[in-house]
Amino acid sequence: MNLLIKIIVTAALVLLISNFMPGVHVAGFSTALIVAIVLGLLNIFIKPILVLFTLPVTILTLGLFLLIINALIIILCTNIVGGFKVDTFFTALLFSIVLSVLQSVMNGILGEGK
C-alpha cells in the first residue's frame, strides 16, 4: 500500500510542478502516473549503474555530480514516456531538484520517513 501511495503522490507532484515550471509538459494525470512509475523503475535499475560508472567524478565533486545523473534520468524518462516533455537539460536539472525536495516534504508529512 505504501508503494501505491508513493506513486500517486509522485504523480501529483509531477503534475503540480508541470503547471508551475515552464519547460515541463505533462499531458494529464494518467501520463503523470506513468512518469512516476518509469522514474521509479529508472531509479531502481539504471541510476545505480550510472552512479557506479561515475563514482570517481562523484567523489571529486563531493556528490554534486549526482544532480547531473538525476537530470539525465529525467531526460531518459522524457524519451520513454509519450506526453511528458522537458525542454532543456537545465529544466530537467531544476525539475529533479524540485521533485526531490517536494517528495521529501510529502514523505515527512505522510509519516513515511520513519
TrEMBL record:
Coiled coil, from the record: none
Protein name as it appears in the record: Phage holin family protein
Superkingdom, taxonomy of origin: Bacteria
Entry keyword Lipoprotein: no
Species in which this protein is naturally found: Flavobacterium pygoscelis
Residue ranges crossing the lipid bilayer per the database entry: 32-55, 62-82, 88-110
Keywords: Membrane, Transmembrane, Transmembrane helix
